Amino acid sequence: INVAVGPVAVFGASNFPLAFSVAGGDTASALAAGCPVIVKGHPAHPGTGELVARAIASAVQSSGLPAGVFSYLPGDTNALGGALVADPRVKAVGFTGSRGGGLALMKIAAERDEPIPVYAEMSSINPVILFPAALAARAKDLGAAYVQSLTMGAGQFCTNPGLVIAVEGPDLDTFVAAAGEALTGSAALTMLTPGIHEAYEKGVEALAGHTAVRTVARGVANTGPNQAIGAVFETDAASFLADRALGHEVFGSSSVVVRCKDLGEVGHVIASLEGQLTATVQIDEGDAEAAAGIVPIIAGRVGRILANGWPTGVEVSHAMVHGGPFPATSDGRTTSVGTLAIYRFLRPVSYQNLPQAMLPVALRDGNPWDIARRVDGVREASAR
Predict the structure, then answer these.
(1) What is the pLDDT of residue 156?
(2) Residues 224, 190: contact at Cβ < 8 Å?
(3) Is the N or the C terminus of the chain less surrounded, counting Cβ atoms within 10 Å?
(4) pLDDT at 384 (0 to 100)
(5) pLDDT tens, 37-52?
């Protein structure tokens, strides 16, 4: 039977004050597993965090649950978060944020007398692979849709399309031109915090100043503080493979197009990538054979593969995987979105040869709780 691991510390995300912060998926899945939750409030939205925390506390009270089921810990120091992870009463951690922040918490957790798991979502550039037939059929439309996805919410989505990979040629030229045209008419959007904006500006500046990178287009000039001006760059596959920095995340509406000599080089670029949350393939019928050879390479680098869409939408569902190999997440076997997220905060316990009276009710003969379960490997359905 699966049992709760114990109290869980949750670090709210800066880019999703509601959906992935105080009452986000980490909190929901930990509570569903039966774990008390201590949320470390994000300093970027202290007011929103407190309002949501009060709503959860009210729900806990009205549901008749113990007051300690949920706690909210505001504060703006790294020391506070570190002390929370180091506390021996905490048995697991959920984190969404920067790679540096996630690695710091992982180190603290690993050095405890009793190490605990840290489920951290950290860094992803979510490659989009444009296959030849799809590019030939709809390059202009793909270019416009790409910029729409890239600039959504000032690019502050963890699934933002930060990399495009395609084979060199006139059709790719058409795509790049269409993307550039769309971006030049795209308004600058306000980012959530000055710190996020400052990091974005530094990342864009580094790409713009790279000798192997060409600036395709920039968005409309900003009209206020902390506004992100969209940026699309391009480089060739050889340069991309030679400098790992070109594959680092620039959080915001910035993306790099990588021009490849052929599909073989496309595969090399994908294989060189760090772990990612998503990868998107734009394909038509004529791409079936080529895609069949590339998709297995993609599967080794990402947690979710989608076709003929854009990665910025994440649905909460049974099949959703919002995770991926490091550094997309600290544990690529898990997801932070969807029903499978609960398993991060559960652990299995086996009861062997115990008398019926000593077994948990859910395991006793006759199925007293009338729940769906598996007996001797055979699925036993609930009568309800």
Answers:
(1) 93
(2) yes
(3) C
(4) 73
(5) 999 999 988 999 999 9
Q: Answer whether residue 43 is part of any domain.
A: yes
Beta strands 227-228 and 189-190, pairing class: antiparallel
CA separation for the pair 11, 74 (Å, rounded): 10
Catalytic residue among 50, 114, 121, 315: 121
Per-residue pLDDT tens for 246-297? 999 999 999 999 999 999 999 999 999 999 999 999 999 999 999 999 999 9
**158 among known catalytic residues:** yes
Choosing from 35, 158, 234, 260, the catalytic residue is: 158
Q: Specify whether 207 is located in the same domain as 83.
A: no
Q: Identify whether 321 is part of a domain.
A: no
Spatial contact of 41 and 48, defined as CB atoms under 8 Å apart: no
pTM for the model: 0.93
Residues 234 and 272 in one domain: yes
Residues contacting 177, CB < 8 A, separation 6+: 143
- How many DSSP H helices and E strands does the chain contain? 10, 18
Q: Are residues 82 and 65 in the same domain?
A: yes
| Residue 365 belongs to domain spanning | 350-380
Kindly report the average pLDDT of the chain as a whole number. Answer: 95
The enclosing domain of 267 has a CATH number of 3.40.309.10
220 in the same domain as 171: yes
83 lies in the same domain as 163: no
